[in-house]
Fold this sequence. Notes:
Radius of gyration of chain B: 13 Å
Number of strands of chain B: 11
Distance between the termini of chain A: 41 Å
Largest sheet of chain B: 7 strands, mixed
Oligomer: heterodimer
Amino acid sequence: xxxxxxxxxxxxxxxxxxxxxxxxxxxxxxxxxxxxxxxxxxxxxxxxxxxxxxxxxxxxxxxxxxxxxxxxxxxxxxxxxxxxxxxxxxxxxxxxxxxxxxxxxxxxxxxxx
Amino acid sequence: xxxxxxxxxxxxxxxxxxxxxxxxxxxxxxxxxxxxxxxxxxxxxxxxxxxxxxxxxxxxxxxxxxxxxxxxxxxxxxxxxxxxxxxxxxxxxxxxxxxxxxxxxxxxxxxxxx
Lengths: 113, 114
């Protein structure tokens, strides 16, 4: 079985400050890892993904995440927060291509001016 | 716009009723996934269909069923509805043709059971 833990259900950052969202996973097989963003009243949009290869992955809107196998982590960062980053972010794990996604509980990001 | 469409956007019904949610995947995508997002349970996988056949099952209640039709659209049927079934139901699709296939999510159907 797989599981995902996101530390902090709510994060508040100032505009221009670093955004750091934490994600730890549990998987008995090499994982595929994802970060999705959900804006109010919208569906999920893929920010970035790790499948194989380079452990530092870059996504859309200036976000990046690093896969650390030894720490079973896949934290999401953005150097400088923008007001438009206010949304809910979900970390997810999959066991193989095309298989179901197991999501974390989500982290809601508030950006203060 | 992900290319995945879901209808209706909103659905309000009463306990004990039955509803059908519809999903049209992106053109050419063979796999359809259904997820439920609720305050209690978060985002959880319900069921996956691949080219008309059930491929994987998650935390789907026996009162719920799904199918994928020859034109690849899918329907999620929810019956004997309870207050706790109120949630946002997402459909996602992927090409599922070897290697990694990203799942694209629809905008969801918000179900309210009164």
